[in-house]
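Sequence in, structure out.
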Amino acid sequence: MELNPAPNQKVYFASDFHLGVPTTEVSLEREKKIIRWLDECKKDAHTIFLVGDLFDFWFEYRSTVPKGFTRFLGKLSEISDAGINLVIFTGNHDLWMFGYLDREIGAKVIYDPIDVSIDDIKLFIGHGDGIGPGDKGYKFLKKIFRNRFFQWCFRWLHPNIGIGLANFWSGKSRAQANDTEQRFMGEDEWLWSFAKAMEKQKHYDYYIFGHRHLPLDLEVGQNSKYINLGEWLNYCTYAEYSDGKIELKTFEA
């Protein structure tokens, strides 16, 4: 993907909104904050990358999607209708996107990490789940989650049952991971390790991921950085491309 923003335009990156948790009320306040951020982005955005886990759970049945998030989806439609490029990556919580967001809001939905060029800056962007060393259990589960037969089976569950089970599983998974998410693991940061290994094969100026939930801006090699976008449950961090560089920022700090 090649982007050529005008000198007065910027490119924005954010991930891990996890809309829907921990309660409807708290999620709604976060949704309104995200909309305020999107309104700011709209003023000068060429492209907005939303890099996965926008929803804590999302599954598109043939004629049904999870209820709620109307303000967020409406704002994305408004941004797309304004001619701003909107790129959405699936994450491990919302990987079951099957065309609804493409059709309804005009987003480009991406399922795997991709190369992106902004002017002469080269990026490698993905949600970050299932890559890097370790985490073999999830890598196995991801193959099941993306298997068309198992997706077909899940569709036969009534949405009340399917979404209820998914929300229970999601909450349990998040509780188990909470301590790791808040702690910098040094050389054991698996996405940082992945970026270092990639850099030995091919140069990128920036490796941009979500998933980790910890805002990180780390050197990968000479003239190369790994940026983790953090999340919006606690940090409300995002990245901004302007004047040939990408910086990690906080919204309404």
